[in-house]
Amino acid sequence: MDTIVMKFGGSSVADNEKLKIVAQKIIDMYNKENNIVVILSAQGKTTDKLINEASQLIEENTKYDKNTKNYDIEKCSSNSKKNTSTNLEYFREMDMLLSSGEQISISKLSILLNKMGYKSISLTGWQAGILTDNTNQNAFIKNIDTTRILQELEKRKIVIIAGFQGYNENLDITTLGRGGSDTSAIAIAAALKAKECYIFSDVDGVYTTDPNKIPEAKKIPALSYNEMMEISSEGAKVLHNRCAEIGDKFKVPIITKSTFNNKAGTIITDIIEENTIKSVVKKDISRISIVGNGIIRNYDFIKNLLDIIQKNKLEMLEFNVSESKISVDFKGIVDDVFLKKVHNIIF
Length: 347
Known about the structure:
Blueprint: E1 3-8, H1 16-30, E2 35-40, H2 46-57, E3 62-65, E4 70-73, H3 80-115, E5 120-123, E6 130-132, E7 141-144, H4 147-154, E8 158-162, E9 165-167, E10 173-175, H5 180-191, E11 196-201, E12 222-224, H6 225-233, H7 243-250, E13 254-258, E14 266-269, E15 279-283, E16 287-291, H8 299-311, E17 316-321, E18 325-330, H9 336-346
Helix pairs in contact: 1-3, 2-3, 5-7, 6-7, 8-9
């Protein structure tokens, strides 16, 4: 019997009605005689809400950047040693707080599935055996003891695991950073030697560029792990940047799909024969990156790109070409009109 890992993001489990859609997708896959392991994010904007509430408690010492959704504690000049200790305590408690969002999601889904007649059990990160290093807020997974997961699968239960979290050698809860549920999913899939890992969200795959900015963007049917790593590293919010790296290491196929339709998604594997450009990514306000295996040998495209930069009178600060990526840093702001022009000369 094959094991399938299914991960659902925050927008997919935002309310009870969406949880019902998620439950049906899980049941459909379970009824195909698969072992099912589900990884969930916190519901909707729960994590942001918890961060804001915690920030308000210590407002005079905390900065919360609404754009990057990161938070930090400013050091007080009066007592740096005391304040460093306070910082560590704060980050530990933030991990404790933020991990509660995923626990709400997994318990609610398990209640629903059991009510629908499908045996399921929810597990926190530590119950699922996810051991991390001691870093708070951005921990790395060191090992996964799959004993408990396998015991529950033997009972034909649907196992629902809290994403984004684990525990360290001190038995403290740790979190994996923003988007860390993706990493939880692929790491668990690797540990279980799963057949596939599905990443469900409110988009139905990876696109040639941001479809919210460029309506002409096209869905990419298949990507290599390396191409996906390059796209993620440039800031595309498709997969957590460590997700494709783990998938590549353990050769677990990753399939990105929409929770809300049945359209084909994007398959991410190491079996990519064609050398073509796959994606154009705009990072921040001054970098454009073009990703695709073998791009370094696509001389016609490189010439066309340089021509369009010259015609638009943009000043380059840096132009880097690697085997699978071209990155151009510009002086000043690069607007979405230029992104569209670059997209149009490729696709």
